[in-house]
Amino acid sequence: MYNLIKKEGNMALIGMKRRDHYEVIVVCIICILFPLFSISINFVERLHNYFRVHSTPIVAEYLINFVFLYLVGLLYLTYRRWKKAEKKRQELEHVIANINPDAIIVVDPDRNITMCNPSIQRIFGHSVDAILNKKTDFLYLDRRRNPQKSREIYEVLEKEGFHIGLATGKKANGGTVPLEIITWGLSDNGGAVLLLRDIGDRIGAEKALRESLKKLQKTLNGTVTALATTGEMRDPYTAGHQRRVAQLACAIAAEMGFSEDRIEGIQVMGFLHDIGKIVVPSEILSKPSKLTDYEFNMIKAHSQAGYDILKGIEFPWPVAQGAYQHHERLNGSGYPSKLKGDDILEEAKILSVADVVEAMASHRPYRPGLGIDKALEEITKNKGILYDLDIAEACLKLFRERGFEFQ
Ligand SMILES: [Fe+2]
């Protein structure tokens, strides 16, 4: 159906045979130019006769020369404009064909490649001649062979006019190349124009970014753990408290369907929620007897102190607020700001439940551990009053149905 008719450098166009074109051009000249020429001669002759009859011969000559020169000038200007536009078009074609790093191919309705630019060589290692008239399968490993995938692509093309997808390209040397393919449907013959972009560099950059993020995450985790450990070194009786609170808080968040990122934030908040105890004298933290009101007020100051320490660090989560609010209670009976209900951060509500359960279950300087049953009894008794109902239910479910244990 198609034959190679034009080749400029590496750019190739496919279409009708060259001989067919000549025939069409000759027919056009005969059909259009000859009658136009006859009409023009006839018109000039009539004009000449008109002026010969109605005016003096000098005026007639002058007018006819003027009209003739005007027409010649108009023709010249039109030609100049056409030439300029043609030059612009050729420059644009040159840019698209030679400077664009992406491969551009045109396919007919049978998916035969009818046109392509030289970038095909850079991406696939195939010459332009090697891929012309080949099916697009010649270039891909995994696209189009899947009828379901092909149907999907055609449906999107029909609806949106273009489709963006990914594929693995086959290189001439047997290697592969990751591709992004943008397809535009051609309305006239059902074919399409495809832009094939080598995304190997982009995938490499994304991988490097992910690795760098992972390293950063490791550094952050190390810093958070170091901070938490420093705080707990002054309060050996509660050593491990923050880690265990983080463990339970994360389990509650997961049970409630929180996103991975939010759970990560809750883990950091758990690790650091008591960091403010660093400002409380260690004699008070480890006092084996009941605390006086003054001493208890000093301990209460750890929420504000934790906030002050953490507010300067730009975490992607509200870590400082978590430390500030983890002793607030749903009914406003907590400290330091007596916040109520929705004014308390959801993460802080989770921390408060995990904090109470861990603290009651574990040994304290002034009392032995009360055990997990006593802790769960407290949560059951005050769910919906001191503790958020959904969070309390999730916590109880973890211990009673999911077999959660502190590690
Ligand atoms: Fe605390």
Structural write-up:
The protein has 407 residues and is of the alpha+beta class. The protein folds into 3 domains: 19-99; 103-198, 2-Layer Sandwich (Beta-Lactamase), CATH 3.30.450.20; 204-400, Hypothetical protein af1432, CATH 1.10.3210.10. The protein is 57% helix and 11% strand. It has 15 helices and 7 strands. It has helices at residues 18-54, 57-99, 119-124, 128-131, 147-160, 200-233, 241-255, 260-272, 282-285, 293-300, 302-310, 319-325, 346-361, 372-382, 389-400; strands at residues 3-8, 11-15, 103-107, 113-116, 162-170, 176-185, 192-198. The strands form 2 sheets. The chain has a 5-stranded antiparallel β-sheet. Strand 6 (176-185) and strand 7 (192-198) form a beta hairpin. Helix 11 runs antiparallel to helix 12 (319-325), helix 12 packs across helix 13 (346-361) and helix 13 (346-361) packs antiparallel against helix 14 (372-382). It is elongated and about 130 Å long. The two termini are 74 Å apart. Mean pLDDT is 83; it is low at 1-20. The site of fe (ii) ion has 6 residues, from loops.
